[in-house]
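Complex record, two chains
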Amino acid sequence: MTETSHYTVLARRFRPQSFGDVVGQQHIAQALKNAILGSRVAHAYLFTGARGVGKTSTARILAKALNCPHAVDAVPCNECEICTSISSGNDVDVLEIDGASNRRIDDIRDIRANVSVKSMRSKYKVYIIDEVHMLTTEAFNALLKTLEEPPPNVKFVFCTTEPQKVPDTILSRCQRFDFSSIETSSITERLRQIAEAEGYTVEDEALDLVARRAAGSMRDSQSLFDQLLAFGDSNLTADDVHRLLGTAGDEQLTTAYDAIVFRDPAKLLECLDDTLNSGVQLSEFFNQILGYTRDLMVVAAGAGKVSLQSVFNSQRPVLQEQAERWGMETIVTAMQILAEAKTQMGRSINARPIAELALIRLCHLGDLKTLAVAMKALEQGQPLMVRGGQTGATPPSPERTNDTQKKSENQPQNAVKAGQTGRQESTVIDLNDRNRREFLSQVIAKVEDKVKLHLSSSSESAISGPNQLEILFPVKYDLSRRYCEKPENLRLIENTASDLAGRPIQIRIKVDQQAVSEESYEPNEPPPAERPRPVPADLDSVSDSLVHQAVDLFKANLVKVQPLGKPSTNQEG
Amino acid sequence: MSHWDTLLGHDRVIDQMKRACERGRLSHAYLMSGPAGVGKKMFARKLAQALFCQTPETGSLEACGHCPNCKRFQAGSHPDYYEIGCPEGKKSIPIELFVGSDDHRGREGLCYELSLKPMASDRKIAVIDDAHLMQSESANSLLKTLEEPPPKSLIVLITDRDEAILPTIRSRCQFVRFQPLPHSELVSLILSLGYAVHESQAEALARLSEGSLENARELSQGRLRELTELVASSFGQDRVNPLKLVPEILGWIESAGESTAQRQAAVWLLKVISEDLRLRLRRNVTETVLVDNYHQRLNRLRDAEQQIQEMMPIPLWLEGLIHDLARLSRGVHA
């Protein structure tokens, strides 16, 4: 095989050639154009931004606009010899330097030595240093003096993807332009133009996929598109794009996520296997799941105008349903699990276990939505409705899935109602034994400042009679106790408490003997071991009729029978 | 008869490449990614040979095998072909290979060679193996050449960890993905390379090696299977006995050879354990407690991976790892 005509990739053939062509950077193009028209061109520019957004292209256009003898209104002719040689990067007066390959101080010394040599045929001598972040510190410093006061008609343009690596002393000598990522719609538009110019028909969805995948980089999109044109059929569809990228289609994604949201790990793994067997790459799929979670977050936040990253907009209703089922809190937690797993996958030799585990953990996520509602209710001073036997700490296992779903349907509404009433009645809180702690903290919050600090050192409260509240102070805070005991202060507290409860409340101040001992032990003491659940004893084996009557009377479970006279540890309940 | 016939299992990629060539749309830069040991480098070499071949009637992207260019290429002495990779004993591809040493900066290295006119054919081709081992200096020094190389040159980057490739590099390349080798192809490859004698052996080997010939070669030495069985049987029990297990595994690692080989063996151990863990997890997906437990164990394995890279002494490393795993698996019945 000898004569294949040389092919130039799209990204190079469709490089913008004038300020008007640069997609998505209109503000920068306009600023540079104005500078040229107003003869206010700075001697040093720094162009920063992600890969493939037009930094090098803009630098070349700037050089052309400055040097092209036929330029009208800062629009170069792109036909003369100067323009073409700048476009190909080998003009005598526009020196395009690869900063990463020529990063040493010696390379910069060469530039300095030649800077004062006058330009050969054009008006300006332009140095374009690409990948400037790779220069060594010495090289940067060697450049400083030249950069501050270059000879007339010398312009510097630095391009970099990593401005944080450029020293401040360089930054302060340059006019900096930050190139933004290009919007998906602009990329789609540009790709459509290219497809037309190349004579291909491409589905809109396929274009959209490519543009989305490029994540704001025009060159990424063009490289991908190039490949699609080279490998694909004459009529390109969304499926072709998925096959090329090794990504999953919308349907595969939503099915997988349905399994997650419905807490069905077995089905999820099935989905995963099917997807991977159909040629989808694990890392791509995982990224898509991450993107999907982000989309769920967008939907859950109610941002109807923000476009979706992972799926087409037509899937929005599906996402809406999933987001409602899951709730924002769960989505955010899922996002954290996935993001953590993703960084681990990047570093690990064996990514699959990490990915699978992360996905399964998503299935096991507890119902955080109800938890958040409950927290809110707690904050607003409402007693929590604890459901029989279920402690919230462990997420429900899938055997209880049905139960959990019912719960998530019922509980939030109850809890929301509770939260609302709490807000309305916040001025009046009934004092009873259950909420006395809450009551006390409300009193502390409402009482006058001079008492507040001392009162907040109280350790415990107790209801010692109708409309009588005892406030206990640890011995350590005896000073606070005595302060609160002063009649005028005591009255203040009583007034606040009475206002709060809606009826007169008497306050007693006392020393809390228990708190002393507790406090001194607390730091060292291990958390108390969980007391074993009492095992019910066999009632029939007990002959005492009194016990039978007692059990009947209290509807109790019998645990232990102990004759009187010994210390009893009976527990009946 | 095509010179592609010896490359098994990648018909799709070959077809794509041929189609691109027929349409005259061959890019100047490809990033070839896929698991280790599936034939990426072989593909790159065949592609290069086909592009160098001077016999026009062989059809698109085929090599005749007897023209001067093919002969030179097969002898490994084609003057327009460059292949660089990670030098022996180094952890990364040094920048010198791209732009030359300090004394000859810009006058040797891959970027310089590409800028010269081709000698024996009409193009220059460069292959960079293990491209993920380019450090940021090396990778950045390639960027300008990669974006606008001299006409008719081709740069192929090969990697099995494409997520470690700089986005600026990736954005300039067309991405070619290699799938794991299909089972039947792998079996015939194993047989033809003599990794296994009987077909049944080859079948078993192919199942374990996850579509990678490299894995198959490792596995064929029998040592790895020994380890897989050891891990599966010991972690399958309720109680892992570290006192018994550690010396066994340590013996296995130390018999691998000198230090570098031992570390490689240690990495294999991690792979085997985490794969074992994955299969166990798949059988117990509904128990929250278990899932949490697996999460802890997997995290421990990841730490171990980090530690082995940081050159922690292997006996210490192994002892800590196995004891922790044993502790974590205690009381968990699975």
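Note: The longest strand of chain A covers residues 154-160.
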